[in-house]
Amino acid sequence: MRDFLSRHPRLAKLVREVSRFGSVGAVAYAVQLGTTNLLWSAAGAAPLTGQVVGTLCSIAVAFVGHRFWTFGERTRTGYGRETALFLVMNGVGMLIQLGCLGLTVYVLGLDGPLARNIAGNLVGVALGTLFRFFAYRTWVFPERPKSPSRAPAV
Predict the structure, then answer these.
(1) Residue 110 in domain
(2) Which residues, including other chains, have CB under 8 Å from residue 115's CB and lie 6 or more apart?
(3) Is residue 150 assigned to a domain?
(4) CB 74 within 8 A of CB 81
(5) Which tens digit of pLDDT belongs to each residue from 14-43?
(6) Which domain holds residue 117?
(7) Domain count along the chain
(8) Which residues contact 134 (CB under 8 A, 6 or more apart)?
(9) Which residues, at least 6 apart from 114, have a Cβ–Cβ distance to it below 8 Å?
């Protein structure tokens, strides 16, 4: 596998980014899952409130990990710009999670801990994560621009 990736540098870079993205995401997910379930069970928070607070905590963890490690080799386009775009993209990701949770609880009427976790913390997070990975790579932490190749003078 290593030999294959050495012959395909773009694929190797993608594999490295996906691995790092997954590692940072796993830590952020643990923060989100723990916070959300703690708020639901110990604090009696409403389904969407617990999900929002847990997701906001995980966003802070994810920003640091993704900016400095996952996409650390990419162009720095400014802390303010990256932070704003990161928050917007995570807002969309959170809406995806909330949509899955809201559909399950308020439309389908499934409001137990298992249903909440499957809808918001499994399906919602999975769909939101696919969106986030694409959004971070494309807009938040873009590739370094390739230096223009000069055509030989004729």
Answers:
(1) yes
(2) 104, 105
(3) no
(4) no
(5) 999 999 999 999 999 999 999 999 998 998
(6) 2-140
(7) 1
(8) none
(9) none
Q: Beta-carbon neighbour count of residue 15 at 10 Å? A: 13
Task: From 72, 73, 37, 77, select the one nearest 54 (Cα to Cα).
Answer: 37
Cα separations (Å) of 67 from 30, 83, 96? 19, 9, 22
**54 is a domain residue:** yes
Give the model's pLDDT for residue 124: 95
Q: Which amino acid, 31? A: V
Token pair 């809808």 is at which residue? 119
Contact between 10 and 39 (Cβ < 8 Å): no
The owner of tokens 């949509």 is 99
pLDDT digits (tens, 9 = 90+) for 98-146: 999 999 999 999 999 999 999 998 999 899 999 999 999 999 999 877 7
Pick the most confident of 31-35, 46-50, 51-55. Answer: 31-35
The answer as to whether 102 is a domain residue is yes
H helices present in the chain, as ranges = 2-7, 9-41, 47-65, 79-102, 113-116, 124-135
